What we know:
Blueprint: H1 2-23, H2 25-29, H3 35-65, H4 72-83, H5 93-104, H6 109-134, H7 144-161, H8 164-178, H9 183-192, H10 199-223, H11 231-247, H12 257-266, H13 272-304
Helix pairs in contact: 1-12, 3-4, 3-6, 3-10, 3-13, 4-5, 4-13, 5-6, 6-7, 6-10, 6-11, 10-11, 10-13, 11-12, 12-13
Amino acid sequence: MKKVLRWFILGVTLFFLGKALKDNWLEVSSIRIDAAGWASLAVATGITLLAHTWAGWIWTWVLQELNQPVSSAQFIQVYLKTNIAKYLPGNIWHYYGRILAAKNANVSAGAATLSVLLEPLLMAAAALIIVVLFGSQLAVNNTNFGVHILQIVSLFLVLGVVHPWVLNPVIRFLYRLKNKKSDSENQSINSLSIERYPLRPLLGELVFLGLRGTGFILTMYALGSLNFSQIPLLLGAFSFAWVLGLVVPGAPGGLGVFEATAIAILQHRFPAALVISAIALYRLISIFAEIAGAALASLDERLAN
């Protein structure tokens, strides 16, 4: 069933993207990028690379919340080198690489696994915060109130999941379900407990989404003019599309789901050709930034050794 669902989601998104491109091909092919536009795209690429580097630093904060002191530089390198693996089928190999690298650095297996589970939860919470704050214009046909309520409820659910009152009992239950009880194991359980709400990593993820959203807005600006009043809408739309790409199964790296969602939201507010071109271009920028991050991390690691 999981494989069928993944292929169904992929097929629907590809069909939607193909139809949107076909219907607007003449307008898309007529778009030109001037010198200022190329400069804007270069800045967007740099900001996107900075966002991925920042996300690696936040991962070290999550590990520190789990009482695992780690080297920030080393784990940022690991994060950047494994990031590109999210485009492999299954959408789990970047997490697997980080868990393996963390265990090799003497991080407990439980803490390593929990850190890669907490990170996307905090990212989702940050994205929902931005959607609630800036996404009031996302709904169409007077359905704003119902959509806004759903956004707020989803936000509180995600924020509640990462609260120590909820998370710590779940950790203990799963750990005891897997292992027999003993004094040493009780100590391991205690070491995995979160002592306070992970506020610093959550605020860090807000900065991460802000950087990613800025890269997307600069990509839109490179292809067409924007008004300052449109920035909240673009940031909210980007965050909503990004979080759907994060949580929907069968979409490695959000590929397809992010693009289809962003097009569905923005094509009614901006020229469809501009939206399609900007979203396709931003995907290329994001992948290039991830490849550059992995290459730079590998180079830095070799120079350090």
